[in-house]
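Form 12-C: Joint structure prediction
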Amino acid sequence: MNVHDASPITDHGSPTLSPLGYPTNLFAGKETFEGVNETIGSVVLRDRQPRPWWIGFIIAFALLMVLFLAISWLLIRGVGIWGINIPVAWGYAIVNFVWWIGIAHAGTFISAILLLMFQHWRTAINRFAEAMTLFAIACAGMFPLLHLGRPWVFYWLFPYPDTMKMWPQFRSPLVWDVFAVGTYFTVSLLFWYLGLVPDLATVRDRARKKWQKIFYGVLALGWRNSAAHWQRHQIAYLLLAALATPLVLSVHSVVSLDFSVAQLPGWHSTIFPPYFVAGAIYSGFAMVITIVIPVRKIYGLENLITLRHFNNMANVMLVTGLIVAYGYFIEAFMSWYSGDIFDQYMMTNRVLGPYGWIFWLLMLVNVVIPQALWSARVRRNLIALFLVALSINLGMWLERFVIVITSLHRDFVPSSWGMFFPTIWDWATLFGSIGLFLTLLFLFIRFLPMIAISETRELVAEPQKAMTL
Amino acid sequence: MNKEKPFGLAAEFKTHEDLLCAAEASYAQGYRKMDAYAPFPIEGLARALGKRNRVPLMVLIGGIIGGAGAYYMMWYANVVSYPINIGGRPMHSWPAFIPITFELTVLCAGLTAFFGSLATCGLPKPYHPMFNLPEFERASQDRFFLCIEADDPIFDATKTREFLQRLNPLNVAEVPK
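Section 2 - Result
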């Protein structure tokens, strides 16, 4: 209907190369306001989604049904359907909780920390990563609640005036967790939605169908792009980023305190908070790469998400991966150096015990394979990068398995040792939660703009910002 | 159609530099009740229009209330309302209260930033006269607008239009109420 200008507002010219040989322009070629609006906006406004979207959505939805089945059976029969028992009372539920909450961290890292550091390349992936954060926290939050045994009384965790005249135990890291994860979800949601409002207004104004006008009109809250709106929006966005930055560091630190405040060998360690935070960012970037590579291909976003983005993300993975490897090393060193027989046995058992093969698999997928990222050729080859990212996703899950299960199964007194074997319901809940995550992600791609349109327009208008690094 | 006073006069610009110059010129001319519309945030535009921003102060107050409230709650619970002696440890064990104090500081500051910025923008607001301007949907896509409102003390339908015409716009249109 509208006749929009096709002429470029700015011309980025031919890409210049950095000393390392990467294009320094954020955009692959010429981008115009209209090009940006059309590329991103049309994904949500078009009637038919590409076939891969449907295939992916159907698989994800089927897995979601598996989750519902697993949860229903859990509510009927109780946590005994899982493989947990004494001594391993924290089974997959806690492994999955820590895994998902770690994945969530990359979103906040990309959107908040990189925003504060003026890393404009984040624009192409931040919305996506923020959505991933939200859905991953939703998956994570589910597990401790299901693990409670009586999830319907979860609200006992909150301080409220109850008839039992009781308070939560505020000195317990498990209660800190409730506040940390609750705050993290709320602040991530607000940050994500605040960033979405101007883009929802763009989609509202481009919509031609009535349901779209109403749907996006309501979500856009009447945003009209006025200077006063932008002023308050920008400062609120920046302040939320500044708040989310220490928050993201605190959340995984608090999660790690669930372990390290306990006196169990393998858990009682001061390195846990920084090593958990690095691991969280590591796994989160791996998940962003795992998802962005196929989505970019399916929706033809090659001009907006360039090889430079993947290169930068791979570099972050390489650095955080080395910190994680250092964490593994220090854990082993300290257990020897402490001279504590229980700690020394824990380490021997972790490496050579019945679960030793998981430890060695962890070393392979989480420490050895990611070293391929030293090579620029691997960082620029999307298939290789995708495989490395998958390996890290698996590795970070195995890491939590090693921490939770091998530490619990043999503690101080040999008479209380035992083995943990997952049941089919453990697996169903794990894969079901992946279904929940992917279903939400597919719906997000279908109904909401997956790249920040207004921020990309800003880069089109002020190309010097796109030339960083 | 001009029986009723219009909402204002809107000038449409092609680039953000033009809009910024026009905003500065209008402020220098003495116009105060006006607003600019652009598809992305433009540095200095709100300042050029004389818009003030109280969101940071609100966020600071929200954060202080959240942190102080959280600490007070835990102190009250563990020292006054429900003291339990566990191995002779102090009731007022402040280091254990720090994580939740921090989390609730961030939570309350974050909620204030979100709802405070929406409230100072007057959102949600489903209807606004600017939406009557036929071209206005491009403000969220690729065009830049400056609207001088009719409520401004020195607004005059013909003089303001002439003034806006001098600012090098693509066109000037009346915004019906």
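Section 3 - Comments
Chain A touches chain B through 65 residues (CB under 8 Å). Residues 1-24 of chain A have pLDDT under 50 and may be disordered.
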